[in-house]
Design a protein that fits this description.
By secondary structure, this protein is mostly beta strands. It has one helix and nine strands; from the N terminus they run ββββαβββββ. It has one domain (2-102): Jelly Rolls, CATH 2.60.120. The longest helix is centred in the middle third of the chain and has 4 residues, at 44-47.
């Protein structure tokens, strides 16, 4: 489990192991797929998508499911506010780093 409750944070994809990220629900977060691994290498495994979900057990494929978003290389998505837990999965060889940036204005989830 990783906590990203401050202003910035990073999460390394670890193959087919589901990652659980705790977020501060009063803020929105921008999540960026860096397209690089921990050593800043831009290769095939670091280009593979990360599958984001608000529920555990997301399928790490392009199969359509409710509550799933495929975050691809060098793209961003905004998560929240109101989200306390984000589940991230990927295929077995994926090794990219995801970068989290908390939005600066306190928001209120309704």
């Amino acid at each position: 489990m990783a906590d990203v409750t401050k202003f910035f944070g990073t999460v390394q994809l670890t193959g087919a192991t589901e990652i659980v990220v705790t977020l501060d629900p009063t803020y929105a977060y921008t999540v960026q797929h860096t397209g690089k691994d921990e050593a800043s290498v831009d290769d095939g495994p670091s280009l593979l998508p990360a599958f984001l979900s608000f529920a555990s057990g997301v399928t790490a494929t392009g199969v359509t499911e409710d509550d799933k978003y495929a975050l691809t290389d060098n793209n961003i998505v905004t998560i929240g506010p109101g989200i306390t837990t984000l589940y991230i999965d990927s295929v077995a060889t994926a090794d990219a780093v995801l970068s989290f940036s908390r939005q600066g204005i306190l928001t209120r989830a309704f």
